[in-house]
Write a structure and sequence with these properties.
216 residues, single chain, Arc Repressor Mutant, subunit A, alpha+beta, two-stranded antiparallel ribbon, 50% helix, globular, 12% strand
Amino acid sequence: MSGWITLHRQIKDHWVYENPDYFRAWVTMLMEVNYDSHKTLIKSKLLNCERGESLLSHASWAEKFGKGWNRFKVIRFFNLLESDAMIRTKNEHVTTRLIVNNYNTYQDINKQECTPNDTANAHQVHTKRTQLNKNNNINNKRGASKKVFKPPSVEEVSDYCKSRNNSVSPDNFVNFYSSKGWKVGSSAMKDWKACVRTWESRERKDKPDDDLGVYL
């Protein structure tokens, strides 16, 4: 593998950037997925792996991500990315297919920018980028009043639980809502801290209920 990947400065405003482990893992994913499509033989099964895709197992991703990662943490991370429409995964029986959404869209911009001695292409890219920035500013203004939900990490939930001195298990909380795509019933979660407090109240009252939280 050689060359480069595109990483927009707006990543600094994203929830992935706020967690060093998640940010490192996300950049690793962008570098590890295919730049060109090819066929891969896995356990006597021939699979076609397209651009922006990977056929690494969860265990293999854990090794790529480095210290502190295991297949369970990888699964939780992938669930978060899927809930934010950043990736898709598909069970291939012999492994897991990972697909980075819109990979071609933002990686091809870099390819165009780096075409040497081509002023026409450079001007076209500059014009497209200017228009994209204008569109982003318009969308940001439209959504300024709407709070965007960011799924918490296990560490964030753990810190909040400690501050409230409750007995809620951060791992159970994150695993439960990750498996549901951070939804409460059929509605998207609005405030995960309120959900923690609901679990806390439920444990004090010792009333069984496996899906309490806050609705939009």
